[in-house]
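Q: Can someone sanity-check these two? First one:
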Amino acid sequence: MSIALHAFVIGNTTLPSRDCIVFCRYALDLGDPPPAAGSALSVIKGSEHPPGYPLAILAVSQIIGNKTVPQMALSAQVASALAGVLLTIPLYYLTRRLFDRNSAFSATAVSGVLPGFVEVTSDGISDGLFWLTAVTALWFGVLAIERSNRRSATAFGLLAGLMCGLGYLVRPESAVVALSIGLTLLGVVITLARRRRRTKIPNDGIRPRFSAGLALILGWVLVTVPYMVLIGNITNKPSGMGWLKKLLGKEIDPTYFDRQGARPAPQVPLAIWWDDAVNAGESRSVWALKSLWAEYWKASFYVLPAFGVIGLFAVRRRLSDPRFTLLIVFSAIQIFLLWTLAVFIGYVSQRHTILLVLVTCIFTPAGFFALARFAINLWRTPTASRWFGPGLIRVMQNSNPVLLVAIWTAIVMIVALPRNFHSLHEERKGHKLAGLWMKDHVPKENQIVDPFGWAEWYSTRTLKAIPNPVYTPGMADFYVVFTPNANSPHSRLGTYRWAEVLTVPANREIVFRFPEGAPENEIDVAVFKCRPLPVPPLKKK
């Protein structure tokens, strides 16, 4: 079902995310480095993103093709979808190690239809591949914790470290997974050592876990250190560097997370931004906590947290089991990371909380089982015998809890499934249509200024190159893609301000508008033909 659902969402996509364009260009540069870079290693060194996901796109594009915009967009979406589909395997086996086969099936089925999860893993962004490495590492971490054989524990510790390292080549947050597994293994070793001193009885469980911890570090170092040496830093991502600087008490350089402007920051369905005008007087820490909860609540489709809490309460006596402790430690560190990101950067998104949602899915079947047993016990009360006949009471008292869990699982899936049938980024349709229009109507000698990137990408001019419009005396008119009635300052877009200046009423002519025939105050996306004002362009991000 996961394959069919992802295939439908990809086929029903209006256009991929703007980040997809960046990753596709990155992938093409890795396959055919531009002369200025010289080599693929130089491309990696100069990029703001790790190379893991672009390499996956490049691999898929060898099958699908990489000569056109649709081919590259499809390659990016397929690479992400494959990760989303494959993630069901480690999630199933991780849940099965903690509970049983039925719980594992329920957790996997529910997570696989959550709209936030399906949407992100069908889009052209790196999160799905990161989640695959993270859940796989947690599974190997649980296996390392379980093993009393030193060789086996060491092997699974090494595999967990390697997966965390591979995850770091996708997103630097993978360090959280490695830290969680390492702290849990350390906690087990310390606990066993104290028990041995107290009881004076040798405990052979210490060495396997200690060896697993060392192997975890080795696996992570083998993959991440060469990358760090290459880029000369811990990470090149602006958000990661901003977070580290704030954590160390340093000032953050202005980045595309800065949303200050005359208009308020948009509160879009998939993310929340801090805005000094709107949030004046609020505690930033409290705002961050509320925003993090709001995004997690939406990503978990509103109902799963309740079932997860019930499941946690039902297995509360097992939470001291190191396997469960690992998930608690991981969740706590992840929450701290996201909270500090929201405090420092002023931004939190649904997709950032998906790993917490997946942990919730692991405990959700335990909540289903608890409710099933509670429902069966209700039929044994005197109240039930007064209201219902003996035949129905006997049937309900003998009901199989697994059947009721299956019903709960099916209900959640049925409720969540329809939300996946909308088209990805349908609200950005005008940008794609503008690009297709420019493909046929804009002469090659005219430069395009498109702060958003979608339209110029679909015009086929920027499949690989990232143009930087320049002003020269006597040059031809510019064609500017702009959203004249936007409710956001779009300060993260490098040429937005220049486009805004070029499209002043006295300097432009509307040659394309979406929706077609809309009055100017209702235009969503427009292509303006503008005279080249002597204003220096701002470099794109």
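And here is the second, same format, sequence then tokens:
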Amino acid sequence: MLCVAIGACGDAVVTDLDLDAADPTCGTGTSTEPGVVITTFGPIRGATGTSVTSYLGIPFAKPPVGDLRWRPPEPLACTSVEIDATAFGDACAQRGTDGAAKGSEDCLTLNVWAPSAATPSTPMPVMVFIHGGGNMTGSAADVVSGVHLYDGHTVAERGGVVIVTLQYRLNILGYLAHPTLALESPHGASGNYGLLDQIAGLTWVRDNIAAFGGDPGRVLLFGESGGAADVCALVASPQAAGLFSRAVIQSGGCTARTRATVESWGRDVIANTSCTGADDPLACLRNLPPGDLTAASSGMGPSGGAIVPPAGPTIDGFVVPQDPVAAFAGGTHNRVPVVIGGNGDETASPMFGFPAMTEAEYATRVRAMFGTARGNLVLAQYPAADFSSPRWAFVAVTTDSQFVCPARRHARALDAGQSEPVYRYLYTHRMSGTSALLGAAHGLELFYVFQTMSRLPDYTPSAADLALEQAVLGYWTRLAATGNPNGSGAATWPAYDAAQDPYLDLSHPPAAATGVRTGRCDFWDAV
């Protein structure tokens, strides 16, 4: 039996997946031809470069279409036909910013960037990235400000690591929870199909990355925004045990939705389709075009100052047995070194859509978001006069309440539940010129993590930008290599403890400090 998709051979957790579907003889042997790798599903050919070979759009599971819609991912059949891996795969089906359907259900692909020096005999650390988008949108090939945001070529080249990015089902196709679906599962679980896709991708990495020169014993799992929420869930998930050995949670929450909440959302989506009142609603839904389903789904947008995606990790009793933070505190999670943090001005990003506002409008927005009584407490804690404008006061309220202060609670829970080190950061760097108006907004740290500063059109990186880019590369790749981000010549990043709340300020130059907005975070914990 070839063990793929979840767990390991021998004492693996039994899952919904058909683990006997793959040919156990597939993937034997090696190739001496440059750019060709023999995987557990057959040979693939990438694009060789002078220092890095890229393998793009590698399928890691069967397309989840037809009867496989809303089922755990199934392993691919073995093939002797060489797979061309020189172009990104399609994005997963989703709604575009204009509300129109885009992407494809045939989207379960991943990408690998392997340095030429990485070989099975000299394996390099591995970094596996989960893209953001609130589990509603996005892809591993996202283009932002004119660059492929998650292009791993430069990180692989400069950092001496093998980079993997992967895609997973989104929106209602990735997270529908429904009683009928639960009846189909031997675990009584439904939803979390996107997380199961990520587990399948991580299992592909475990079984195949050595052939690319990666070390399956040193796998760093990292994600941003919605991808960070998924990393949290995977750190808490028994189904992901042993599939990674370190984790980074960038600007994402660690809470999971209840099954009742997600089932309610699912009912609302179904009510917006032609399957309402069908004799067999599930069969009807599985026959709908994916665009009809994503069009029927509620969108993701500002809701009183918060972006509230309806899809994401769900407490289903199987993939996510309990709230991840409770699992952290109780020590029932996958105990690995963890970095957790966020950005100083998360909601200054244009994606949140906060306009300029008067002080009266600021007060109205806060009361609408928190209710009159709690809103008045928030306004007393964040008076508009303390900030450069009422808009920046609202950015502070929403950044602290949704990102910075929850990260402290999550770091405390992790620290309480494991002996492995936890590290906290706050990204505060501001780019130069008009870009400084964004502050340290949501997602900006990704340009430094993926080493794309010099590729940004119409922007000339400052010396501080380039120095911080180099520093971030060192911290992230050392964590991947050793489980410790610290190294010679770098500012010391202290391990976390709840009493001091130590963190690393990711600015120029990076510096260790204690107490991230302590008074404000104490306030949020109290209210």
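A (reply): Looked at the second one. The first strand starts at residue 36 and ends at 39. The mean pLDDT is 91.
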